[in-house]
Design goal:
The chain is α+β, with helices and mostly antiparallel strands and 165 residues long. Helices cover 34% and strands 21% of the residues. The radius of gyration is 39 Å and the shape is rod-shaped. The model is unreliable at 153-165 (pLDDT under 50).
């Protein structure tokens, strides 16, 4: 048994005099066999939680806002590409020179506008801008491509009745 056990203190604890006797037998140093926390320990823990918790919550809020912004930008880029692909397939200047619209069910929060400028070489520079509201602020994403208009001509077939052609 430890020679200081009669004091209820550990060897590492302060409060022992040079003779090995207890300097203060009713010391405020906690008895190692006692259970629970002292008031200063509880207050220190509360102060620590009070400082750390708001910082952690702010970090979570910022990360969720960044995640939402990234999701909107990715969706807007995909929708803009989809709309440009539609224009590339049709290649009709009247459909993309100055048009607006939405993307229908499932994409209600997004709208699109297109504008086109005819270059000297007969190719249109087409820009599709997708817009949405994020935290009460208007955000947008623009994507551009070059479209050569279709040169569809209608041909008439001649038919003959009777005789040889």
């Amino acid at each position: 048994m430890n020679k200081y056990a009669h004091c209820g203190l550990r060897i590492a604890d302060r409060g022992l005099n040079a003779g090995g006797r207890c300097a203060n037998p009713k010391s405020t140093i906690r008895n190692p066999q006692s259970r629970g926390f002292t008031l200063p320990e509880v207050l220190a823990a509360l102060v620590f939680v009070g400082i750390v918790l708001p910082v952690v919550m702010r970090g979570l809020t910022v990360s969720m806002q960044a995640s939402s912004a990234a999701r909107h930008r990715v969706e807007a880029a995909q929708l803009a590409k989809q709309k440009l692909d539609e224009f590339l397939i049709v290649r009709d200047p009247s459909s993309f020179i100055s048009a607006t619209g939405d993307f229908g069910t499932g994409w209600n929060e997004y709208t699109w506008t297109s504008r086109a400028q005819l270059g000297e070489d007969g190719v249109y520079d087409v820009t599709v801008t997708v817009a949405w509201l994020e935290q009460s602020q208007q955000k947008s994403f623009a994507l551009s491509t070059m479209i050569y208009p279709s040169t569809t001509t209608t041909t008439e077939e001649s038919t003959t009745t009777g005789g040889t052609p």
